[in-house]
Design goal:
- This protein has 16 helices and no strands.
- By secondary structure, the chain is mainly alpha-helical.
- The chain has one domain (62-198, 222-345).
- Helix 9 (170-194) packs antiparallel against helix 16 (320-345) and helix 12 (260-274) runs parallel beside helix 14 (293-302).
- The longest helix is centred in the N-terminal third of the chain and has 34 residues, at 59-92.
């Protein structure tokens, strides 16, 4: 007879099987990165052949190049460390370990699960399948969602990266910790109060160690997936931030940065679109010097919880009805918590 873990991994009768989050992004992200790199190479080569490569020596391009490389080089060690830890947690920590440490009372389990993100690092790409695994193992969905939001936002690697990106500003690290914990706990309690079971399609697969699989193979594959996936978005985010800093006229920046709410909303929306890995987003935020500390805090709080790749992963794991409602509510909550925390501490 199959054991309980094997039964947990099988889809329910009549239920569509969610795409494996370890394979779908693998096909997309490297393709996007390779296509971008090839396009950039062909553009430079064509410019040289046509004798129009003078723009490569222009001060504007050199400034763009310097900003892009600086962001990527500063963030890369933290990205590497974060994905190593995330892969180790995924491979060596059994999923039932999380359910054992959570209180049975769902209202109390939410803040405990949120706080667990401080000591259990994880990439935001891995947090979605991990949350699905927790739900399949009996953890209340509200606690699983609180952990999903907090783990990539408040883990030690992310906080250390924030301290390096904002030297001499420990209040920025504290503000990020408080705003992220407040957002994750609030969303967990909101799900307890307003969430409906019909919105949630139960995940049919789980991450973590499975019987008959080598833990070291799972660690290697998990690390490889997370590093390539997050690394691709890091490069894209660094290029986008550099382009933003060099090409956007100062008058446009003043339009948004001159208003407290407009600047917060603008950078929150930018975080959703850029989809920078949480281990690296602090360096991108630090480069946006034209905006207030509160607006940059919103960039760092919203990004790890709501971005385009996370929304896609949530659709594939929990269903579209859940992803649309949960992402929208999370974005609003994150902006409000960031604004209140920023205006209080910064």
């Amino acid at each position: 007879m199959p054991n309980t873990e094997e039964l947990a991994d099988r889809p329910l009768s009549g239920q569509a099987v969610a795409p494996n989050p370890r394979t779908a992004p693998d096909r997309l992200v490297p393709s996007v990165v390779v296509a971008g790199a090839v396009s950039l190479f062909l553009l430079v080569a064509l410019g040289r052949l046509l004798g129009a490569d003078q723009w490569l020596t222009q001060p504007g391009f050199r400034a763009w190049q310097t900003i892009c490389v600086a962001i990527a080089v500063q963030a890369l060690p933290f990205l590497l460390l974060g994905t190593l830890i995330s892969g180790a947690v995924n491979a060596f920590v059994p999923a039932h370990a999380f359910s054992r440490i959570l209180p049975r009372n769902p209202a109390l389990a939410v803040p405990v699960a949120s706080a667990a993100g401080v000591v259990l690092p994880g990439c935001e790409c891995a947090s979605v399948p991990v949350a699905g695994s927790l739900i399949r193992r009996g953890v209340t969905p509200a606690a699983a969602f609180a952990f999903l939001l907090s783990a990539p936002a408040v883990n030690p690697v992310v906080l250390a990266a924030t301290a390096v990106a904002f030297p001499g500003s420990p209040q920025m690290v504290v503000a990020r910790l408080i705003a992220s914990l407040a957002t994750s706990a609030t969303m967990g309690w909101l799900w307890l109060r307003l969430g409906r079971s019909e919105w949630l399609r139960m995940p049919s697969r789980h991450t973590g160690h499975q019987s008959g699989h080598s833990r070291w193979d799972e660690f290697r594959l998990g690390f490889q997936h997370d590093f390539l996936h997050a690394g691709g978005f890091l490069v894209f985010g660094a290029m986008a931030a550099a382009t933003f800093n060099v090409t956007v006229p100062r008058s446009v920046l003043e339009t948004f940065s001159g208003s407290a709410w407009m600047s917060v909303l603008f950078l929150a929306g930018l975080a959703v679109v850029l989809a920078v890995c949480s281990e690296a987003d602090a360096f991108v935020a630090a480069s946006l010097t034209g905006f207030s500390p509160t607006a940059r805090l919103a960039f760092m709080v919203v990004g790890p919880m709501v971005d385009l790749k996370l929304i896609a992963l949530q659709v594939g794991t929990f269903g579209r009805a859940f992803a649309v409602r949960f992402s929208t509510a999370t974005a609003i909550t994150a902006v409000v918590c960031s604004a209140l925390t920023g205006w209080w501490l910064l």
